[in-house]
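Researcher: I'm preparing a figure for a lab meeting and need a structural model of a single chain. I don't have an experimental structure, so a prediction will have to do for now. The sequence is pasted below. Please return the structure as tokens so I can convert it later.
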Amino acid sequence: MSDEKVIRAALYVRVSTEDQVVKGSSIDAQIEFLEDWAVKEGYTAVETYVDDGYSGKNLERPALQKLITDAEAGNFNVVLCYHNDRLSRDTRDALTITQDLLKHDVRFRFSNLDIDFASPEGELLFTMQAGFATYFRKDLGRKTKFGMQKIKKDGYWIGRVPDLFDKEREKHTKILPTDTVKRIMELKKRGLTLRDIAEIITKETGNPVNHVKIWRALKVYKSLDSMGE
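Model: Understood. Here is the structure written out token by token.
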């Protein structure tokens, strides 16, 4: 009979909608990878924890919280994770979790960064890696915001095409006021109330339009006017 200690492994999987679409890192793909990894290492996989559709910035994930509780209870010795950003996209949060679990003799292993977190060198490397993940996330957000601002400044529309407007597609979507919207503007300039305009437009077009849609159309038209339309 072998005297080798049985290493019980927990598998942690997280995927957000964006991750699944952009990276193809689906739940099934991660689970299959981690199960194979556990077998190769000679571990016994005791439980799989799955957070489906949760952001890496949020620590209040049900599966992650259960994993921490079970780790503190001594249910396993090691946690296998596909990538360190599956645990957290925030450096401080990731370090806090890994260091807290080490106090209960539970260590994390990531396929992209397989180091000993109990050593000063391991903590340094993990801090650097997690720091890069945090930086790239924030930098991407900054670039995305800048890009959206540039698109709007160039007169393009972002989001769903509003009611009573037409659209045309160039590099991005442009929306154009229909004859109905122009008629609404004409009536508004004459001093009619939104409800009065709605009644007139409904009668003229045969399509029911309430005062809320009239208000929205005026607001969108004003937005277009400010963009130089």
